[in-house]
Model the fold of this input.
Amino acid sequence: MSTGKLRKIPLTIIDSRESVAKDAHAEHHEHDADEGPRSIGRPPPCFVHVGETGIDEGQIAQEMQHHRDADPQRSRDAAARALVVRELLRLEVLRIGLDAAADAVDGETEEEAAIRLLIEREMPVPAPSREACERYFEANVERLHQPDRLRVRHILLAAAPEDIEARLAARTQGEALIRELREHPERFTEFAQRHSMCPSKDEGGELGWIERGDTVPEFERQLFMLSPGLGKLTLETRYGHHVVLIDEVARGAALSFDEAEPKIAAYLETQARQNAIHQYLSLLADRYGVRGLDPGEARAT
Done:
């Protein structure tokens, strides 16, 4: 079983906000009492620990680049969880001596190779049987179909994720355009050419046919919930706010069992792997101890 790079492993340990806050509060008062105000050059504070190993806020900030989110707190939390998982697996690699047995492949570091070997050895997942796939197919036949497609136009009102004022202005402008387009829908092309910051403005905002996976996840999550016509509100993404017009919806045709079986098998295998990882991480968190995050809430996403 191939797991790829470590930070792509779909694992989550939910943090204990109260614990982190208490640790931060205690550290703040300890510094005040012993050393006075913080000075430039002090090491970053450290609220998260795995066993005796601390994971400081500098490490978390560096890891955040791999967990981008419009909400910086969610990005920070995801980065902290990823580093906790990495450290739990690293400690277990050292405990059972796998670090000398792993051969790196595809540009892996030695640590990543050892962790991959650990997961392959400790969490083997058998392929689901045809009977299991048939049972899933019969229970979910109405949900199994070719991908839906949407023919979409949009106006992108760009704003950086961290620029709160610009994002508010983009939303306000988008809402004003939506009000105007309700009265004059024929002006969509004109407005796209005048206001959109997407290259599609040259085609009047045309994005063409979109399937799931074609664009960023946060755009698709909102887009595929809409009915045909002009969206009543802007859609917010990492790029800003979008005024969206759905010109046509094409529902995917139903799949036969033979067509659906590979997707079902992959889904069932993923679910089994996530359950195995959840149980294994809970075991490791109990073995080594985690502070700053709640190891009892370890789960696969």
